[in-house]
Amino acid sequence: MPNRLKLPTLLLLCILAASCGTAYRLPLPPRPPGAASGNGFYKVIDSMKWHTREPLAMREVLSGNVPDFLRKFVPIHTSITGANGKKITATFWVAPDYLSVGGNSDFARIPFTPVTAQRIADSLQCFLPTRKMVNDIYSQARVKLEPVPLYAFRDSAIIFYHHHLIIEGQRKGRKGLIAGIKKDVVISAKVAQDKRPNRVAIYGWHKLDGKPIQPLYTGHVDWYVDYSHGIRLVYRKIKVDKRWMDYTEVLQHPEYRALLCDEDACDFFRYPY
């Protein structure tokens, strides 16, 4: 009998090891006892301007006050045909939802400026997606929701939370990779190419027909953030044909960069701070 148990046990260990090697979890501490709920946090920041609320929101995230479901990333698969006609495949891992504060049952999504988002991403071995990656994420999302535009007090925390509640009303408890609910803050060569300094690039907010409301756009200064902006973290290690590469290596590769980027130039890797 003991010998018969060895094979199933070994198989289980192999499965667990494989899942650990192919999944990514945010390296955050456990959620602190008594941490603020999403609603509670918004009550604190409801009248604050961006430069006051952002350090508080970043502190909440990095202290571990994020829902458990947001910590485990999900794989997105993509491929291209190489110059020799051979298929090149890649997998990158993304957060199933946008950056949020709170627990599983009391969280709230928090829009961030790109500079704060970059600080958080750097702290968690992550980066921000490109336009192509946003499209790939949308195409593979399990939960796709119709965008809901709002028009008054767009950059206020009150409207941030109101928009979150609208999304939750649409979601109706459905779980899994979600998309179509926010414009993504993205990395794009347009930021560096724009003659105006200190830009933020946004893209997405796909409608149910798969067409984005927001084309790739750098019209806002980098301290501007409104209710429609979302921060989707991406693990910085990409698996290309079974080989692990840093995303900067992929974006600098003359062939592989097409796996992650559909712009003429793919040389903007992160927002400076």
What attributes characterize this protein structure?
single chain; 273 residues; 4-stranded antiparallel sheet; 14 strands; 32% helix
Our measurement of the CA-to-CA distance between the termini, rounded to an integer number of angstroms, reads: 61 Å
| Low-confidence runs | 1-21
Helix content: 25-40%
Order of helices and strands: HHHEEEEHEHEHEEHEEEEEEH
SS field, number of helical segments: 8
What is the number of E strands? 14
- Structural class of the secondary elements? alpha+beta
Could you write a compact summary of the structure shown?
With 273 residues, this protein is an alpha+beta fold.
Give your account of this protein's structure:
- It is built from 8 helices and 14 strands.
- The chain has helices at 2-22, 38-45, 50-62, 114-123, 131-140, 157-171, 189-193, 247-252, and strands at residues 74-81, 87-94, 100-101, 108-109, 126-127, 143-144, 178-179, 183-186, 199-206, 212-221, 229-230, 234-235, 237-240, 243-246.
- The chain has a 4-stranded antiparallel beta sheet with strand order 1-2-13-14.
- Helix 3 (50-62) runs parallel beside helix 4 (114-123).
